[in-house]
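Re: the multi-chain job from yesterday

Posting the exact lines I submitted so nobody has to dig through the queue logs.
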Amino acid sequence: MDNRQFRLKRLKNQVYLFLPLVLLLISFGFILWGQFQTPVLIQLKVALTDTVSPIVSIVSAPVRWGKRAFWTANDFVHTYRDNDRLKAENETLKNWRRIALQLQSEQSELKRLLRYTPPPKATFLTAKTLTDNGSRFSKSLVVAAGRTQGVNKGDVAMTSDGVLGRIVEVGSRASRLMLLTDYASRVPVVVGTEQVSGILSGDGSRWPKLTSLPEGKNVRPGDVVLSSGQVGVYPAGLSIGIVETVDKGEIKVRLFEENTTPNFVHLVNFGIGSVLITDDCPVQE
Amino acid sequence: MRQAIPDLFKKTVPFIGCLLLILLSQNLNARFVFVPMVFIPIFYFAVFRPRCLNAYAIFSLGVFADLINQTPFGLFSFVFVLLFFVTRLNHLFLKTLSFRGLWTLFSVFSGLLLLIQLFIFTLCEGAVVHTRFLFEQFSVLVLLYPLGMTVCNIVNNWIGEDE
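And the result, structure tokens for all chains:
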């Protein structure tokens, strides 16, 4: 009996020693499996995001309150300075409004002359952000709106300042949006008055970089970057950012929306036929 | 019997703590601090009390972190289990070390693991992560080690002796 117990204990110890090795192999298998982005895995991730998001919201409430208290105090301290800045900005905007109204009337006249067919009207909804996944490896946000609320894969996430990213995973109550700064983010854009085509590639840093520019085309700091509408990921003409630095062939773009953790985002459906929407991902029903 | 349930609960505290760290990191800009912070309890409990945070628990923590993060699936589970495995292989030697010795070896292990993590990420995503980020993460981890170790020590003492 003792011998049997001893053998059982030894076997248990051996299993215990090699168990991490087995788990390591399984993890490695997961990494390989993850590369295929199988529907099962995507569904699993979406389901877990759906389940975990309310829990995260509760758990991180004290942190959120702390952050809010800090920013409230900060706003309070800078009230006078902000007030002066806003007054000056308001004056500038009034001038721009006059110009915009003039351009709008010219544009309507030209559209009428050209018998222009307008694109489908965009619809939007506003959603609260639940979690921010601002790791060094990925840049994404989870928002408290999903299929039930009418969110679709490929919807563009925006704030009043500009484009933030797009929806990549949709659950029933929560969705994940990939920020423009994410490593996997690639946006076809046009730059400056010459409309130079390029790709805005996220690289994990605050300022994404411009790549795939045609040879011999010059891009200067201060040039405005707009979405080109190619591939159908983003509609054409969305304000994305401004060229900040051009250094040794590396062009960095400062985004109009620099705050990657806003409390609310607008999820806009531009009604374009996007490659993202037509793929056979199971989350799109 | 009445004592058994609180004891069982006590032993799950390290796991729940790690889970909270992963969950908390979902709402902070300083996420890069929180997820690798799980390295500290994994290392500590692998040396001193592996039953409280065993291989299964660590693996499930990794899978959980993988699923709720937008990182390559399997990355965190691989790194967490690797840390546990390496630590367990050397736990008899590690137990004899002083605090400074443990700190040094933890720095070496975590540095290597962060490099592996970076390497896997680069292979999977085809994008090279700035080494500055790696250095930031590593520095924070090494600097926070004494604090993490103290908390783990308190938890370990609170759990009490094994029967």
